[in-house]
Design goal:
The protein is built from 16 helices and 8 strands. The protein is α/β, with parallel strands linked by helices.
Length: 427
């Protein structure tokens, strides 16, 4: 179902681009098509059209890779990403080929295409696509998580030793089986018959990860399921170089913003502008994390504690800095030092790490990779202020540890921009 959805999105985007091209031709040149159209100096619009269509195809392919294992949704942000990618691809192609182009035509195509791309996604969001499934498990809480993803139509939940339905499964349904459960002979025979009849039979943990973007911790055995993908990752050796390159390219922006924030914090309250705090990094190596100070001096006289909603220790300017994430600008220096990646699990303080490793299974697995300035848990869950929240965030962190790819990083960075705009998860 997800493949059909992505194909329909791709074809709809191409159709919207076609409409945008035709409408722009009429608005700018008074023509209804490029055939026989005469543009200044005897040039042709075909190179421009070819670049725009090629950019749309390539942008859609990159967008598809960015979904990774997650369930694709009609996202407005991805519409902007595809249109923006195609526009940039076309601009670069025009510069390199020196082909003819018209500024008004270019602008009309991009604007009309984006409006249409957002419009057809808005229509799809009113009636999201779903996967029909019958689930065999005793983990009813995890089933509720799958339902909450919005793309699962759970027809029935059967126990591993229940009596199988006599009528079989609907044609479009998937049989999802919890492989940790011991099936009765009747249930095992039912699953085998369904598979022979052509019904998709899938593991419960895989379906859970796809629909929630989380790891079902109840399905982890000894942690090798996480360590093995990390050890075999072909992305890890290149991730460090990409982090440094992107950080250096963005240096003029974050250095300028950092200078402005430094002055504002200095004027707002007394005390050091830069706050240094020990955190736990990759392989549990401690390091010093740098942030702009957002709390009053000596805010923790009794030792480390979580920030709270409307925390009185936070200064007026500090509250804005936390909401906008501008307090984290100095962490780009941590990226250059090698303490942090741009994307990864957020590093925690040693006192909390020691506590959580004693009480939360597999908490130490988040240290298999370098922590990040932003992360999958940050954009999906926000701030954790107690152990229960930490467990929930850990399911997202472990998903990232297992499925880390450049495409997932791009997706997280895009979502992080929205997080900064909305202030999601700030304390």
């Amino acid at each position: 179902m997800s493949r059909r959805f992505l194909l329909s999105i791709f074809l709809s985007d191409l159709a919207c681009l076609g409409i945008a091209l035709v409408a722009s031709l009429w608005l700018v040149f008074g023509a209804y098509g490029p055939f026989g159209l005469t543009v200044p100096e005897g040039n042709s619009l075909w190179p421009f059209i070819g670049l725009m269509v090629g950019g749309a195809v390539l942008g859609s392919w990159v967008n598809r890779l960015a979904w990774g294992n997650a369930m694709p949704r009609p996202s407005y942000g991805r519409a902007a990403g595809i249109v923006g990618f195609a526009a940039a691809f076309t601009a670069i192609g025009l510069i390199l080929t020196r082909a003819y182009w018209s500024r008004p035509f270019f602008a009309f195509v991009v604007i009309i295409w984006f409006i249409l791309a957002v419009a057809h996604r808005a229509i799809r969001r009113r009636r999201p696509w779903t996967d029909q499934m019958v689930i065999v498990t005793i983990e009813h809480r995890l089933v509720e998580d799958i339902k909450g993803g919005g793309h699962a139509d759970v027809l029935a939940v059967l126990g591993p030793r229940d009596t199988p339905p006599g009528s079989g499964l609907p044609t479009e349904a998937t049989l999802v089986i919890d492989l940790r459960s011991v099936l009765s002979e009747d249930m095992a025979r039912f699953a085998s018959s369904a598979s022979i009849a052509g019904t998709p039979v899938r593991a419960f943990s895989t379906v859970y990860e796809e629909h929630t973007g989380r790891i079902p911790m109840a399905h982890l055995a000894e942690g090798w399921e996480l360590a093995r993908p990390v050890a075999r990752s072909s992305y890890a050796p290149f991730k460090r170089g990409l982090d440094v390159l992107v950080t250096l390219l963005l240096a003029p922006i974050w250095l300028l913003l950092g200078a402005i924030v430094w002055m504002v914090v200095k004027i707002d309250s007394s005390g050091a502008v830069i706050y240094r705090q020990e955190r736990v990094g990759r392989n549990e190596r401690p390091f010093t994390l740098y942030k702009f100070r957002t709390m009053i001096p000596h805010a923790e006289p009794d030792g480390p504690e979580f920030a709270k909603v409307n925390d009185p220790r936070i200064t007026t300017v500090g509250r804005f800095l936390r909401k906008s994430r501008l307090d984290e600008i100095p962490q780009f220096w941590n990226v250059l030092r090698g303490d942090l990646a741009l994307v990864g699990p957020r590093p925690e303080r040693p006192a909390f790490v020691e506590q959580f490793e004693q009480s939360i299974p597999f908490y130490g697995s988040r240290h298999l990779i370098r922590p990040g300035v932003t992360g999958w848990a940050q954009v999906n869950y926000g701030y954790a202020d107690d152990e229960a929240d930490t467990v929930e965030k850990l399911t997202f962190d472990l998903y990232y540890v297992k499925h880390s790819t450049p495409w997932l990083d791009l997706h997280i960075l895009g979502m992080s921009i929205w997080t900064v705009v909305t202030g999601f998860g700030a304390r």
